[in-house]
Structure to design on (141 residues):
């Protein structure tokens, strides 16, 4: 059953936001993002700038204490690798049209009490407006 739908991120990410310097969703959303068993994500990327334009990755991370986060994806490197995110746009992002992708957490592995999204470009010269929309569901088990 669908429980919640909201915008988790809607910002212009400047150049320099690569895997070593990512951006994260607001800490105010950490407990809200972990509230239900499953969620689907839609990423919308537009106003892309840079030469050459890179790709974009979103990793789902969770934590029991709200401070020490680990990737939900088993075996993810630290810092995570470009092109292997839970939602990943391969390089190059289109600078002339809107880039749209979706991904999900199916709930087969439980989430800890806090969730955030790590977002970064595959290079340090890309910038873009990024929007992340979340639909949360509850299995009811």
């Amino acid at each position: 059953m669908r429980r919640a739908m909201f915008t988790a991120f809607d910002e212009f990410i400047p150049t320099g936001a690569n895997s070593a310097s990512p951006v994260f969703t607001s800490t105010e959303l950490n407990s809200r993002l972990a509230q239900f068993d499953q969620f689907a994500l839609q990423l919308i990327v537009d106003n892309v700038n840079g030469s050459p334009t890179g790709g974009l990755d979103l990793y789902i991370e969770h934590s029991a204490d709200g401070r020490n986060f680990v990737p939900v994806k088993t075996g993810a490197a630290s810092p995570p690798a470009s092109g292997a995110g839970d939602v990943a746009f391969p390089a190059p992002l289109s600078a002339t049209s809107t880039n749209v992708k979706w991904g999900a957490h199916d709930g087969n592995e439980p989430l800890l009490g806090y969730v955030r999204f790590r977002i970064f470009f595959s290079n340090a010269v890309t910038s873009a407006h990024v929007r992340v929309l979340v639909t949360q569901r509850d299995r009811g088990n």
